[in-house]
Amino acid sequence: MGWSTRQLAELTGTTLRAVRHYHEVGLLEEPERRANGYKQYGVAHLVRVLRIKRLTDLGFSLAQIQEMGDADDHPEQALRTLDAELAETIERLQRARVELGLILNQAVPTDLPPELAAAAKNVKLSDADRSFSVVMSRVLGSQGLEAYAELLQDSPQDPSFQEFDDLPVDADEAARQDLAERMAGPTRAVRVAHPVPDIATDGPLGRKRAGETIGTAMRELYSRAQIDVLVRLEAEIKKLEAAESGSGQV
């Protein structure tokens, strides 16, 4: 008495494809064939497939099962390693559920981590600004994300920032300089109120890679006219800082 491949799959609660794959990767020995050429599986095959299915249900990969061999008792270290992996997976899934709850309950953006999503919800961001925030979510560490979220939430409402978003690519030098000068005051005020830590403080990429990533993102997301305004803006902010420093020494 034996079973066909289909019958074995039905008995073990798996599929024909799975049984054939177990043969391909060496987890299941090929059975003898009947006179008509069809495979005939025995109890040993049934037990082996049931054990494979049990271990995969627990979370073991087929590669891990193959390393264990056919023994009934499996190495304690393999079980402990799997337990640690499952704990990490559970933690990741729990975090995902928290984020999904935030998205569903507060209608926050799905492409940003929770630290930035809540802050960006009530802020009008251009497509470029939004994409840049996604990049920053990878560049900044926990401290930086918290500070950047506060900065986003307190983004200046000055009309000059809307002008920046709508700046024509062929804006002349006078227009770019004027815009930079008008953006300097509001930008400086927000930076003073919400200083973002150095990107190397706790960022996952380090200063060099983070700087390269930010630079690439800015070049691709913003026009040359906008980047020129941002360069001029930094110069204007330095002038304001120098003026404040000078007045403080008098």
TrEMBL record:
Gene Ontology MF terms in the entry: DNA binding; DNA-binding transcription factor activity
PROSITE patterns: HTH_MERR_2
Alphabetized InterPro entries for the sequence: DNA-bd_dom_put_sf (IPR009061), MerR-type_HTH_dom (IPR000551), MerR_fam (IPR047057)
Pfam families (UniProt xref): MerR_1
Keywords for this protein: DNA-binding
Keyword DNA-binding: yes
Domain HTH merR-type: residue ranges: 1-71
PANTHER family named in the record: HTH MERR-TYPE DOMAIN-CONTAINING PROTEIN, REDOX-CYCLING DRUG-SENSING TRANSCRIPTIONAL ACTIVATOR SOXR
Protein name stated in the entry: DNA-binding transcriptional MerR regulator
Phylogenetic classification of the source organism: Bacteria, Bacillati, Actinomycetota, Actinomycetes, Pseudonocardiales
